[in-house]
Amino acid sequence: MADTYQLSSASLDLLFAALAADGRRILAPTDRDGRSELNPVSSPAQVARDYVQTALSAKETVFPKVEQLLSYTLKPGEVDLADAVPKARPTVLFGIRPCEASAFAALDAVFNWDTRDAFFNARLEQLAVIGMGCTRRDDACFCTSVGGGPGSTKGSDILLTPMAGGYLAEVLTDKGRAIQALAPDAFQPADGAGKAALLADVPAAFDQPALTAKLPALFDSPLWAEQALRCVGCGACAFVCPTCVCFDIQEEADKAGGRRLRAWDSCGYHMFTLHASGHNPRETQGARWRQRVYHKFSYYPERYGKLGCVGCGKCTRACPVDMNLQEHLVEASQVNP
Amino acid sequence: MSEPNIYLPYLMRIAQITQEAPGVRTFRLEFVDQAAADSFSFRTGQFGLYSSFGDGESTFCIASSPTRKGYIECTFRETGRVTAGLADKEVGDIVGFRGPYGNVFPIEDWKGKNLIFIAGGIALPPLRSVIWNCLDQRDWFKDITIVYGARSVADLVYKHELKAWQERPDVNLLCTVDPGGETPDWTGKVGFVPLIVEQADPSPENTIALVCGPPIMIKLTLPVLHKLGFTPESIYTTLENRMKCGLGKCGRCNTGSSYVCKDGPVYTLEQLNRLPAEY
Question: What does each C-alpha distance from B265 to A116, A303, B204, B240 come to in angstroms?
Answer without folding.
Answer: 21, 18, 24, 7
